[in-house]
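I would love for you to help me understand the pair of lines that follows before we discuss the fold together.
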Amino acid sequence: MKRFFLVIAFCFGMVAGFAQDAIDAVQLKNDGNEALRAKDYKKALELFDKAVANWGDNEADNAMIYNAGYCAYKVKAYDKAVKYFDMSIATNYKTSTALLYKANAQLKLGNEEAYVATLNDGLAKSPNDAKFKDRLTKYYLKEGNAFYKKGAAILSQAAADVTAGKYKTTDDQYKQATANAKVEFKKALPLFEKALEIDPTDATAKQLKDACTQAING
């Protein structure tokens, strides 16, 4: 009988402990919100981290998770920001904004592949969101333009060499240079086409696509 009462007492003690943890977690969250309002992002993140660790099996507080991601982003803890924004996205809480912050955090981490994948995920979820369109279009233009400029530089150098009398346009050196340039233009073309798929009205993408096509077929 004594052992039975000890077991019951132990169980009540565990329940009381879990309840206290939940109370503490709520207080930590509230303190974190206060720090966030004061724009003390470092302190707020520390408090939110502790709150999440002590939250237990209670229903998730989606606003707290999102705020933790925001604070992590503000203090440049980008890995942690991605983690919290993934949690927000999984619960469909402020999904578009969470995806944008997640993408920006991935770009800050130097992971351009993940950045583009996240933006494409955001565009798939919100096809009319101008922010996803703008960032993706700019990315594809930047990447495509790097290849285009490389091809243009090869052609420019070849033309300069012809002018300098190093070889003629009928010589193998010139033919090889133009072939090398076309390789770069062919790399650029699909990137400009992707930009136009997102924004068919983008004048820069149209101009660069036309220039690439002309250079490839010329």
Observations:
- Residues 131-217 form one domain.
- The longest helix spans residues 2-37.
